[in-house]
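Incident log, support desk, overnight shift.

02:14 A customer reports that sequence design results differ from what the structure should imply. Their input is reproduced verbatim below. On-call engineer (initials T.W.) acknowledged and began investigating.
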């Protein structure tokens, strides 16, 4: 298997523990614990993740619970059900997605906004 192919946790699989690596991960099954990736995490509609996630990018189509820190972006599709806090420079929440938590975006604001002026 080439190293650029994603790792798959199949729909009838469950993993409890810590997952780390540089390879993309697709979750169709269940993961509990902690996920730390230097790449992309995709939680498919059948997938369920109950973990703190520290990833490059996250795409949620299924269920996620926990703290999410994404270095580049977090995308919640219309089928997503997310409970937890999300921190990323870019966050997209599609119409229909269910989200409960807080969002923190680290963005550089223009000087006029920082100073409170117009």
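02:41 Re-run completed on a clean worker. Output:
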């Amino acid at each position: 298997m080439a190293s650029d192919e994603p790792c798959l946790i199949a729909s009838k699989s469950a993993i409890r523990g810590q997952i780390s690596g540089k390879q993309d991960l697709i979750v169709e099954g269940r993961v509990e614990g902690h996920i730390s990736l230097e790449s992309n995490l995709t939680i498919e509609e059948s997938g369920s993740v109950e973990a703190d996630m520290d990833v490059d990018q996250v795409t949620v189509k299924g269920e996620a619970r926990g703290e999410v820190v994404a270095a580049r972006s977090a995308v919640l599709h219309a089928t997503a059900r997310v409970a937890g806090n999300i921190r990323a420079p870019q966050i997209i929440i599609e119409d229909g997605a269910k989200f409960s938590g807080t969002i923190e975006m680290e963005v550089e604001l223009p000087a006029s906004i920082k100073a409170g002026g117009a």
